[in-house]
C-alpha cells in the first residue's frame, strides 16, 4: 500500500463494514488484483451470519423439527414427546454460526485483501481513521469507498423500556433461557418468526402489535390465514394496541396498554425495526449526507453525495434482505468500473420463515388494483397439492395476481410448506415477462410442491 502522505495508506477500494454487499465486493476486487482494505468492528461475515438470517433460520430448523415430530404418528412413526433442550439448541446455533464465520475469515485472507478489525471514523473525503481492536491506529484512503455498516435493532420510545433491558432479535439469540412467557412488541417479520419459534420451544407467547392486523402490506386474506396458523401454534396475538409504559416487578415485565389493561411476562422482546449504524462514523467529514433517520442518502446508482463514495445494504435504505445487499454489490461493482447499473425496477422476493412459511414477490392484489391493473386472481388451498398430502402438511394457501390483458404475472403469495423454494420459479417467469400459461402448462415433476403451480394458474376466483 502506498503512503504518499505521511501515515496515510492508499488503496483502490476501502470498505467500511463487512456485510454481504461490501464483503463480496471486497473479495471480488481483491481477487482481481486490486488493493483492498475492509474495516469491520467485530462481526466477521456481517450481521446475517452472526445475529440475523443464519442463526435465526438455524433455530427455525429446530422448531420445525419439533413441529414435525409432534405430528409423527400421522406418518406412521411413534416417538416420545420431543422437547427443546436449551444446551443443544445453543450448540446447534453456535456451531453453524462459528463454521460460517471461520469460512468467511479464511475467504477474506485467501482473496488477498487487508482485513482490519477496528472502528472507523471518517476524517475527510474517502479517508478514515481506524482504532484497531488490538490497539493502535491506521489511516486509510480509498480511490473508491463503500459504506456497508448495516443496522441494529431499534428500541421504541416507550416510557420504562430502556430500564427493563428488553431482549432484541440479537440478544435473544444468546439463548440464556427459554422464556416461560415471552411478550413480543411488534408483529412484523422478525417478531412473528421469533414468536412462533419460541411457542414451539415451549414458551407462552403474546404478541402486541399496533396495527389492526399483522403484515399490513399483505392482502387481508393472506394475513388472516397466517394469523390463524400462529394461533394454532399457541401464539396469542393482540392487534390495534398502544403501549403506554413498560416496567419490571417481582412477577416479571409488565406492559401497560392504552386501554388500561396489562400483559406481564417473564421476558419482553422488542421487534419494531432496525436503525442504521451511522451515528459515530462522522459522515459529515466525508461529505456524505444522511436522512432524518440516519440512513445514508443514495441515488439509484447507490452513489452518495460525496465523489466516488457509495453505500450498500441496510445502511443505504435498501430493503433489509441479504439477497438485496448482494444485488447492491453487483450494482456498485458495475458502476465503479464505469457502468450505469441501477436499483430502479428491481423485483425483490422475500420469505417469512414461520411454519408454514410465506413467500412473496411482486404486487399484492390490493397494490395491483390501486395501480390501475385489471386483474385476475387465482387462489387455492395447499391441500390441493399432492406433495403436501404426502408430507401430511396441508396448511396454507397460494394466491396469484395476473394482469387480465397481458396474462403476465404481477405477483404471488405462497403460504405453505417449502414455499420459499417454489417462489424462484414464479420470479423467473416474471423476470422474463412470460404469461402465466408458461407455468400452467409446464411439465413439472410429480409429486413436488412446485407442481402446484400447474393447479394454481387454473384456480381462478376472479
Comma- or semicolon-separated keywords:
462 residues; alpha/beta; FAD/NAD(P)-binding domain; Enolase-like, domain 1; 3 domains; five-stranded mixed barrel; five-stranded antiparallel β-sheet; 13 helices; 20 strands; 31% helix
Please write out the topology.
Elements: E1 8-16, H1 20-31, E2 36-40, H2 47-51, H3 53-70, H4 86-110, E3 114-124, E4 127-132, E5 137-147, E6 151-153, E7 181-185, H5 189-201, E8 204-209, H6 220-232, E9 235-239, E10 243-249, E11 252-257, E12 262-265, E13 267-270, E14 274-276, H7 283-286, E15 309-311, H8 322-336, E16 350-352, E17 357-362, H9 365-370, E18 375-381, H10 386-391, E19 397-403, E20 409-416, H11 419-432, H12 437-441, H13 452-456
Parallel strand pairs: 1-2, 1-5, 2-3, 5-15, 7-8, 7-13, 8-9
Antiparallel strand pairs: 3-4, 4-5, 6-14, 10-11, 11-12, 16-17, 17-20, 18-19, 19-20
Helix pairs in contact: 1-8, 3-4, 3-5
Gist of the model:
Helix content is 31%, strand content 26%. The chain is α/β, with parallel strands linked by helices. The longest helix is centred in the first third of the chain and has 25 residues, at 86-110.
Radius of gyration: 24 Å
**Proportion of β residues?**
25-35%
The helix-and-strand class reads alpha/beta
Low-confidence stretches: none
CATH class of the largest domain: Alpha Beta
- And the CATH topology of the largest domain? FAD/NAD(P)-binding domain
CA distance, first residue to last residue? 64 Å
User: How many strand elements?
Assistant: 20
Amino acid at each position: 500500500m502506498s503512503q504518499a502522505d505521511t501515515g496515510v495508506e492508499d488503496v483502490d477500494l476501502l470498505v467500511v463494514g463487512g456485510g454481504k454487499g461490501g464483503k463480496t465486493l471486497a473479495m471480488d476486487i481483491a481477487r482481481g488484483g486490486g488493493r483492498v482494505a475492509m474495516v469491520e468492528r467485530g462481526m466477521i461475515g456481517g450481521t446475517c451470519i452472526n445475529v440475523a438470517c443464519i442463526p435465526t433460520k438455524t433455530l427455525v430448523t429446530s422448531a420445525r423439527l419439533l413441529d414435525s415430530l409432534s405430528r409423527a404418528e400421522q406418518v406412521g412413526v411413534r416417538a416420545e414427546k420431543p422437547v427443546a433442550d436449551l444446551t443443544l439448541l445453543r450448540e446447534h446455533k453456535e456451531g453453524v454460526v462459528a463454521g460460517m464465520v471461520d469460512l468467511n475469515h479464511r475467504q477474506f485472507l485467501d482473496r488477498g485483501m487487508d482485513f482490519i478489525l477496528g472502528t472507523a471514523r471518517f476524517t475527510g473525503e474517502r479517508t478514515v481513521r481506524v482504532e484497531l481492536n488490538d490497539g493502535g491506529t491506521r489511516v486509510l484512503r480509498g480511490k473508491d469507498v463503500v459504506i456497508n455498516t448495516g443496522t441494529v435493532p431499534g428500541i421504541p420510545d416507550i416510557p420504562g423500556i430502556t430500564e427493563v433491558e428488553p431482549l432484541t432479535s440479537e440478544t435473544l439469540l444468546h439463548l440464556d433461557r427459554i422464556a416461560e412467557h415471552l411478550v413480543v412488541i411488534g408483529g412484523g417479520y422478525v417478531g412473528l418468526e421469533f414468536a412462533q419459534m419460541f411457542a414451539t420451544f415451549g414458551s407462552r407467547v403474546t404478541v402486541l402489535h399496533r396495527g389492526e392486523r399483522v403484515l399490513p402490506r399483505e392482502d387481508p386474506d393472506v394475513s388472516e390465514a397466517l394469523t390463524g396458523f400462529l394461533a394454532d401454534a399457541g401464539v396469542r396475538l393482540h392487534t390495534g394496541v398502544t403501549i403506554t409504559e413498560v416496567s419490571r416487578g417481582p412477577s416479571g415485565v409488565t406492559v401497560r396498554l392504552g386501554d388500561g389493561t396489562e400483559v406481564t411476562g417473564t421476558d419482553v422482546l422488542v421487534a419494531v425495526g432496525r436503525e442504521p449504524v451511522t451515528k459515530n462514523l462522522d459522515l459529515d467529514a466525508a461529505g456524505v449526507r444522511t436522512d432524518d433517520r440516519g440512513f445514508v442518502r443514495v441515488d439509484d446508482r447507490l452513489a452518495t453525495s460525496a465523489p466516488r463514495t457509495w453505500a450498500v445494504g441496510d445502511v443505504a435504505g435498501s430493503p433489509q434482505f441479504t439477497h438485496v445487499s448482494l444485488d447492491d454489490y453487483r450494482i456498485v461493482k458495475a458502476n465503479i468500473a464505469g457502468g450505469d447499473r441501477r436499483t430502479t425496477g428491481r423485483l425483490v422476493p422475500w420469505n417469512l420463515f414461520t411454519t408454514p412459511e410465506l413467500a412473496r414477490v411482486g404486487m399484492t392484489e390490493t397494490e395491483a388494483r390501486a395501480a390501475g391493473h385489471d386483474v385476475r386472481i387465482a387462489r387455492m388451498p395447499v391441500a390441493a397439492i399432492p406433495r403436501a398430502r404426502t408430507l401430511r402438511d396441508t396448511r396454507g394457501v397460494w394466491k396469484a395476481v395476473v394482469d387480465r390483458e397481458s396474462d403476465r404475472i404481477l405477483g404471488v403469495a405462497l403460504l405453505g410448506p417449502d414455499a420459499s423454494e417454489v417462489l424462484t420459479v414464479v420470479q423467473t417467469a416474471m423476470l422474463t415477462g412470460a404469461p402465466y400459461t408458461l407455468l400452467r402448462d409446464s411439465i413439472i415433476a410429480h409429486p413436488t410442491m412446485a407442481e402446484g403451480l400447474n393447479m394454481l394458474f387454473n384456480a381462478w376466483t376472479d
